[in-house]
Amino acid sequence: MHKYNPTYAIIRMQRFLNLEEYLDEKNEENLIMATILVDPNLCNCCGICSSVCAMSIITKTDEEALPNVEDAKAAICIKCGHCEAFCPSGALVLNFRADEKDAMAPGVDSISPEAMALHLKKRRSVRRFTKDLVPREKILEILDAVRYAASGVNAQSVQWLIIHDPDKVRMVARLTIEWLKGLQGTAHPLSSYAPVLISGWEKGNDVICRGAPHLLIALIPESKPAAPTDAIIALTHFDVAAPAFGIGTCWAGFVAHAATSHEPLKKALGLPQGWKCAHAMMFGYPLYRTYAIPRRNPLKATWL
What we know:
elongated, alpha+beta, Alpha-Beta Plaits, NADH Oxidase, 11 helices, single chain, disordered N terminus, 2 domains
């Protein structure tokens, strides 16, 4: 991971934009503060950046004026990057972690509809895992892609708690069973599951985490109302991406419920003040491979 360095960003942007007017100290300061950086030699004033701006803060262009964000509107920018992503001439750069800018590889959007549909259809919930540990580097590689998941107003508020030690995963499962024992005889909507799960656990079966070596927990700030949805979107990205890395996943619903209400589990997870568990996912290397795609109910859709 690169650490954002404004000075290095300037050097790289000067190389990218070839703007000699930014070389003096005063304008270098302006470059750091600018919301967008535009190369006048590449900009064709098409106006697409202004059109796609989610917050409508980029001024419309003409033959005499380049795209710009007025200082009074700069704070409104949510750094979504639409302006840069949709610029057909590569003239515009969003001035956010600009030293990390990379060109999009040719053919990156060439996944066929058939290949994408097949990838989604063959995705399975994995409940039997090998004992092999997934290297931390591989987990971080997936999460690095997952951080591009959509989020409300581009808040990117989801953080991750990765439980890599299988013994700690087992501890989480045990505390979840402890939580389920407290549900017996109550009106909790999950209380009906408690007896069979407790019985299975006491017989030596990991009915909670299914022997998965790892757990991934999405943490969100309690103060952000859109964060629960953001977390589900992000975890779904992990769920869909993981098979491409040879990793199987399964949503850990009981763990997620216990982690939001069972104090001993919350304490064991060391959740930061003001943060909570949005959901959890078990993962690891699948013990078995799949050979077929099972059926699903017919599609139901209503048109208005």
